[in-house]
């Protein structure tokens, strides 16, 4: 594991859930209620044996088989459920259900040293809302995943959205700060370094991959001395199916499937 100095990178990218925003992920109850909305919209009654498969976060064979039993197209149903999930998540955020981690204040200082970006597996509308609601103006690029099957397949550890961020910011090297092994893997596959952030929810987690560095607070990014990125030049991946990003004032717009 090597040390690093954040201002030696072109960009410093961050995960959102568990890193910037408290709570490491989406409450399963949100998906359950979103599914209720979608089924009601379509006038569908679902046997209890199928419901569990339709509530799963994965667009997998179990979900598609359940849709086949209901005689519905799985792709549009999955996308509709995720769009409703994003709406419900935004409602909860607006009501104050989740807060920023206190050490997010470090980003104001860090933004004077490096270009910052936010790249999350959470839905793009939710990520944009978090940035606007909490006035996180330090991020030059903001990207969540697109609702629907394509967005699901492009989740980390797929480097698709990290590559999009690097392309949009015209960066050749960087570091990604996350709280899961999938974040470390995605960074590795995108050809950049990784910082694994340990918080209460993952303090004892064993990693099967080795990050560039481990930190215990976002403030640690300001205090790591005398370092530089790895000597070898970064080589970023170009995953199949990646598309040109569209940016507005440096912030990515959600693309359709």
Report on this model:
The protein has 257 residues and is of the alpha/beta class. The protein contains nine helices and eight strands. The protein has helices at residues 28-42, 48-55, 61-70, 74-94, 106-110, 124-133, 149-153, 160-168, 181-190, and strands at residues 11-14, 115-123, 139-145, 174-178, 193-197, 213-215, 247-248, 251-252. The strands form two sheets. A six-stranded parallel beta sheet has the order 3-2-1-4-5-6, sandwiched between helices. It has a two-stranded antiparallel sheet with strand order 7-8. α1 packs across α4, α2 (48-55) packs across α3 (61-70) and α4 (74-94) packs parallel to α6. The protein starts with 10 loop residues before the first strand and ends in a 5-residue tail after the last strand.
What's the story with the biggest beta sheet? 6 strands, parallel
Question: How many strand units?
Answer: 8
Number of helical runs?
A: 9
Average pLDDT across residues?
A: 86
Beta fraction of the residues? Answer: 5-15%
Low-pLDDT regions: 225-257
Taking Cα atoms only, what radius of gyration do you get, to the nearest Å? 19 Å
């Amino acid at each position: 594991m090597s040390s690093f100095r954040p201002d030696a990178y072109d960009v410093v990218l961050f995960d959102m859930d568990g890193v910037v925003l408290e709570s490491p992920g989406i409450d399963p109850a949100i998906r359950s209620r979103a599914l209720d909305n979608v089924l009601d919209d379509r006038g569908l009654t679902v046997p209890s044996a199928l419901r569990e498969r339709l509530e799963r976060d994965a667009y997998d064979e179990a979900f598609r088989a359940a849709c086949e039993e209901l005689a519905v197209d799985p792709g549009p149903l999955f996308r509709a459920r995720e769009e409703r999930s994003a709406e419900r998540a935004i409602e909860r955020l607006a009501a104050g259900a989740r807060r920023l981690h206190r050490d997010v204040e470090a980003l104001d200082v860090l933004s004077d040293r490096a270009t910052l970006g936010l790249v999350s597996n959470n839905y793009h509308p939710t990520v944009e809302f978090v940035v606007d609601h909490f006035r996180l103006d330090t991020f030059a690029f903001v990207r969540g995943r697109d609702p629907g099957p394509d967005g699901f397949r492009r989740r980390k550890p797929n480097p698709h959205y990290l590559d999009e961020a690097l392309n949009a910011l015209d960066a050749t090297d960087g570091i990604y700060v996350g709280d899961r092994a999938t974040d470390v893997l995605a960074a590795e596959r995108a050809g950049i370094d990784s910082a694994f952030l340990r918080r209460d929810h993952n303090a004892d987690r064993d990693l099967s991959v080795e990050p560039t560095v481990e930190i215990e607070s976002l403030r640690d990014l300001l205090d790591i001395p005398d370092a530089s990125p790895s000597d070898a030049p970064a080589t970023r991946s170009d995953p199949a199916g990646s598309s040109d990003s569209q940016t507005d004032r440096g912030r990515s717009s959600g693309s359709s499937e």
